[in-house]
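User: C-alpha cells in, sequence out, please.
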C-alpha cells in the first residue's frame, strides 16, 4: 500500500504540470491587453506599460512565462495580480469560504443521496422507489441559478429562516441554503447510482447465501450488499469533490459569497490571468488528491482489492 501511494503521488506531478500548462496557454491566449488597461488608456506613457510587461514576464516566450510560474508554484508562490497582490493571499482569504461550502454540500449529497438510493433499491417498484426516481429527475432538470433564486425567495425573503445572501451569519446559517443548491444535482445522481448498484447487489449470490445462513437482514444489507454497492458511488464522489469547488462559481455568484468561485468569475471578466491560472491550479490539485483518496478507499470497501 505504501509503495502504491508513493507511486500515485509521483504520477500526480507530471499530470499537474501538463494540466497547468494547458490551462496557462488557454488563459494567456485570451484576447485583450490587461497591462494597457492597468497602465491607462492609449494616451498613457508607453514606458509604464513596457515596465509592467517586463515585470510580469509578458515580453518573454510563453514557455518561459510558464517556467517562471510553475517554478514559483513548487515553492508555494502562485504569482501575483496585476495590482501587485499575491495570489496566495487571495487564496488564503477566499478558499476557506469555498471549502466550507463545498464540504457542506458534499456531506449533504453523500448522506441524503446514499440513503435515498438504499431505500429506493429496497422498495424497488413501490411508492418510495417511484418518489425517489421522479424527484431526482426533477432536481437534475432544474438549473442551479433558478433553484437558488427560488430558495432565496422562499426561505430567505418569505420565511426568513436563512440569510438571502452573504456570509455574515457564518456557518451553518449562511452556508446551508447555497450548499443545498450546490449539492442538488449530484445528490440526485448519487441516489440513482446507489439505487442501481444496490439493486444489483441484493440479487447477487453472496447475498442469497448470507440470507440462507440466517444472518439478520440489517447485517446482510449493511455489511455485504452496501459495501460493494458503494464502490461506484465513491468513484463518483471523488470526481465530484473537485467539481464542487469549480461548480461553486454559479452558486457563489447567486448567493454573493466571496469565495474562490466568485473570485474566479471576477478575474475572468477583468482578464486577471495570473489569478485565473493560480486558482485553477489549486482546483486541479484538489481534484488529483481527491482521486487518490478514492483509490485508497476501494481497498477499505472491498478487501479483495489489493495494491502491489
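Assistant: Sequence out:
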Amino acid at each position: 500500500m505504501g509503495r502504491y501511494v508513493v507511486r500515485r503521488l509521483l504520477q500526480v506531478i507530471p499530470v499537474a504540470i501538463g494540466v497547468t500548462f494547458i490551462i496557462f496557454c488557454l488563459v494567456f491566449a485570451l484576447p485583450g491587453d490587461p497591462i494597457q488597461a492597468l497602465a491607462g488608456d492609449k494616451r498613457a506613457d508607453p514606458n509604464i506599460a513596457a515596465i509592467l510587461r517586463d515585470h510580469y514576464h509578458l515580453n518573454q516566450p510563453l514557455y518561459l512565462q510558464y517556467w517562471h510560474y510553475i517554478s514559483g508554484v513548487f515553492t508555494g508562490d502562485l504569482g501575483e495580480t496585476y495590482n501587485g497582490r499575491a495570489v496566495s493571499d487571495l487564496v488564503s482569504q477566499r478558499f476557506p469560504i469555498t471549502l466550507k461550502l463545498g464540504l457542506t454540500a458534499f456531506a449533504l449529497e453523500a448522506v441524503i443521496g446514499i440513503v435515498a438510493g438504499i431505500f429506493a433499491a429496497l422498495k424497488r417498484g413501490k411508492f418510495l422507489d417511484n418518489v425517489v426516481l421522479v424527484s431526482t429527475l426533477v432536481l437534475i432538470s432544474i438549473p442551479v441559478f433558478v433553484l437558488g433564486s427560488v430558495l432565496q425567495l422562499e426561505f430567505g425573503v418569505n420565511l426568513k429562516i436563512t440569510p438571502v445572501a452573504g456570509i455574515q451569519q457564518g456557518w451553518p446559517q449562511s452556508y446551508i441554503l447555497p450548499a443545498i443548491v450546490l449539492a442538488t444535482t449530484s445528490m440526485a445522481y448519487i441516489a440513482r447510482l446507489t439505487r442501481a448498484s444496490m439493486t444489483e447487489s441484493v440479487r447477487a449470490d453472496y447475498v442469497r447465501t448470507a440470507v440462507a445462513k440466517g444472518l439478520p437482514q440489517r447485517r446482510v444489507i449493511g455489511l455485504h450488499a452496501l459495501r460493494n454497492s458503494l464502490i461506484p458511488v465513491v468513484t463518483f464522489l471523488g470526481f465530484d469533490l473537485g467539481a464542487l469547488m469549480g461548480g461553486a462559481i454559479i452558486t457563489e455568484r447567486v448567493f454573493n459569497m466571496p469565495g474562490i468561485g466568485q473570485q474566479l468569475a471576477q478575474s475572468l471578466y477583468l482578464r486577471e490571468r495570473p489569478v485565473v491560472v493560480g486558482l485553477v491550479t489549486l482546483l486541479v490539485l484538489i481534484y488529483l488528491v481527491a482521486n487518490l483518496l478514492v483509490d485508497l478507499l476501494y481497498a477499505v470497501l472491498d478487501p479483495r482489492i489489493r495494491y502491489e
